[in-house]
Amino acid sequence: MITKKTVEDVFSVVSKKYDFFLNLVTFGKIDLWQRELLDMLSHEGNRLDVGTGTGEVLLKSQNRGLRVGIDLSLPMLRLAKEKCKVCHFLAADGENMPFKEGSFSSITLSLVFRHLINRKAFLGEARRVLKEGGELALLDINRFSLKPILVFLMEFPLKPLGILLFGRDKWAFFIHSLQNALSLEEVKRELKEEGFNVVEVQRRLFGAVYLLVARKG
Ligand SMILES: C[S@@+](CC[C@H](N)C(=O)[O-])C[C@H]1O[C@@H](n2cnc3c(N)ncnc32)[C@H](O)[C@@H]1O
To answer: Best substitution site from 33, 38, 71 to test ligand 1's pocket, by max atoms within 8 Å of Cβ?
Structure first.
């Protein structure tokens, strides 16, 4: 069974190779997709990046306000701090956040939503720490469309490199997380159930990747 400890351990172990590998599996597109996600948001106010990893989203963020990143993995956060000295990073769980009500104007999650163990708990927390009308932005893999091809790539041509870089069990975790990706329709339904109105959706890589912005209702 995958627990938060598993997630923390996997990302801590892979932290130093993470950026290189993410660029490889997204055909170098992740940088552009993250910028495009940020462009879909208003640039006012404090921004929180949940599951910030190596801090790439906050590094690119142009918001006028605080830039705060949280993650379960300390090694990831250390790399993030090296990249963005003016950003604030802390070890915290997106499902139980250490922030006051209405602290942020926007929350971003890049490749994190499908890794959350309890998405309902996260969405409740996101509602709480967002201001009225605050924005939640997600970038993630869509279950349908090209997902079988991505799984195929990771199961076959990329597998030897993946195992070499990360080890067999960590590689299995990444394939599992890809197989567990939600469809865009499921994501929209979960957001609606937790009081978010989806205002914009864009698709990338023939629909395999979605960028979505929802507003706290
Ligand atoms: C695939 S990485 C994405 C990193 C970064 N956002 C990016 O786009 O490169 C997922 C990150 O989410 C973090 N994470 C997963 N569940 C979390 C949770 N409940 N709270 C905080 N961080 C979490 C992991 O530790 C990992 O660093």
So the answer is: 71
Question: What are the tens digits of pLDDT across the range 101-110?
Answer: 999 999 999 9
- Angle (nearest 5°) at CA 158 between 155 and 108: 90
Tens of pLDDT, residue by residue over 41-53, are 998 999 999 999 9
Q: Is 46 in the pocket of ligand 1 (CB under 6 A)?
A: no
Structural class in CATH, domain 4-216 = alpha beta
- DSSP string of 12-23, one letter each residue: HHHHHHHHHHHH
Q: Could you tell me the residue ranges of all domains in the chain?
A: 4-216
For a mutational test of ligand 1's pocket, the pick from 67, 97, 115, 177, i.e. the residue with the most ligand atoms closer than 8 A to its C-beta, is: 115
